[in-house]
Amino acid sequence: MANETASTSWNGSTNPHLEGMEVVREGDKSGYGMVIRFTLLGGREVSAIALPHQFPTRTGPTWAYLVDCEGLTLVDAGPRGALNALEDGLKVLGRKLVDLKRVIITHGHQDHDGNVYDLVKASGAELWAHELYFHFLPYEYARTGLDKESALHRSIFEVRRREEESFRSRAVPSDDSPWRDHYSGYIAGHRNILEEKLPIHAISDGEELGDLRFLYTPGHAVDEICITMNGAMFTGDHILPQITPHPTIKRTYPEAMLGLIIAPEHQEAGEHYGLARYLKSLGKALSLDYHTTLFPAHRLFNHGRFNIRNLQRGREIVRHHVRRLEQVMEVMGEGADTPVKVTEELFPPRKLTGGGFFAAVSEVVSHLELLADTGDIQVSQDGQIKRNGTDIFHSEINAMITRG
Fold first, then answer.
1. What is the pTM of this model?
2. Which CATH code, of 3.50.50.60, 2.60.40.10, 1.10.3720.10, 3.60.15.10, is assigned to 6-143+180-319?
3. In what order do the strands lie in the sheet with 293-296?
C-alpha cells in the first residue's frame, strides 16, 4: 500500500467533509490503473477504482466507487470489457466480486453500464438504477427519440448522413467491425438483464439507503441520478471537473414505452430531456451545501493531478452554458442562420473532425431549443433560424437554477 504523498493534497477549506486520501495503487498520468481510498469526516470510507475503455476516449477512465452501506455497494460498473480490471481493483482493496451486494448505475451510457451484465452475472449483486433505466433496456438507448419533423433535428440527421457517406468513401476504408461487435454485445447485455430476470431495484427520486440519498437529475441522460452521502456526492456525468457534460436534445420515448408502463411523473418526455432540464437538475444539486465534495465518473485524476472539487463546480458549468448561449446569439447576429453554420462558427475545425461534428451540432441544437423555448429566436420549417432581438434566456436560466 502506497503512503500518502503531496500529490494527494486537496484544499480543506473548500472540501471540509474530506478528511483523508490515500493512493492504494499508482496509475498512469490519466489515472488508468489507479485505486484510491478516501476518508470522509467521521471515518466513512470511499474507494475509487479506475476502469479502462476498449476504445480511445478523451474522458479518461470511468471511476467506480465502492462504499459499505447496508452491504458492499459499487457505484457504476464501467465500460464493457472492464470486468477483469474491476476484479483486480477489488483485490487490491481486499475484496472480491462476490462480496458485492448491489451495483448502482448512475445512468445508461455504455461507459457506465457496459460492464453491468457481466458484473451482475459474476457477482450475484442486485442491480440498482433509476426506474427509466429499466424501461429503456429493450431499446438502443442512444438512437431513440429524434424527431424527423423538427427543423432543428433535421440538421442532426443531415450531419449524420454526411458523416456516414464520408466514412464509406474513404480511400483507405476503416474496419469498424470491432466497435460494431462491442456495441452489439452491449445491447445484448441490456436485453439479457430483463430476459434472464436478474435481480433489479428501480430507484425513485428522494429514496434513501442508509446514508445514501438518491436525486433524479436528468439532462445529460434521461435516467441520470446523483447520490449524496455524508457531505459527498457521486455525480456520474452530471457534474464533472474539467469537462462540461453534453446536454441532451429534446427527444421522445419509444411508443411501446408509453401508457401504463411508465410512472405518471415520467410520462412527458419533454420534461426529462434538453438543456433546460439539465440546468434545472444542476439547480437541484446546487441547492445543497456548496462544500459537498464531488466524486465524478471522469477526470478525478488527469495529467498527473487530482481534481477534487465541490459543488461550486456546478455554478461554473451553468456559467459555461450561459456564455455558450450568448455566443450562439452573437454568431447568429453575424449571419449564421442554420444550426450547421452556427456550429462551424462556434467550434475550431480540429473539433469538427471525425465524429466531432455530430457531437458539436447536437450540442448547438440543445442550445437553440432553449432559445426557441424562451422566445429569443425563431426557427422556420426549412431550418432557418433568426434572432428576435431579446435575451430572455438570462432571466429564465436564473429561474431554472433557483427552482431546481
1. 0.93
2. 3.60.15.10
3. 208-209, 212-216, 225-229, 232-236, 293-296
